[in-house]
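Changelog entry

Holo records now carry the ligand SMILES as an explicit input line rather than a separate metadata file. Below, a converted record for zinc ion, shown in the new format.
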Amino acid sequence: MSKALFCPTCHKVVLATDENFPFCSDRCRLLDLGKWASGGYKVSTPIQDPDLLEELSRSKRDNPKHEDED
Ligand SMILES: [Zn+2]
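Structure line, unchanged by the conversion:
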């Protein structure tokens, strides 16, 4: 029983028996790798909590104890 899915790059139907599966072609495979390499997909999430950001900047500013460490 053969399987098929859509090429992640161009969404063409690709059979599981295709040598480039799950991509329809070598070109699409390279394009997908390029997307990863160029940062098209982001894994880490930036801090977006305003309270946490406020706390971080405040502890930096109002902490004369550690001033001489810099
Ligand atoms: Zn493709």
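Spot-checked after migration. DSSP finds two helices and two strands in the chain. Helices lie at 26-37, 50-61.
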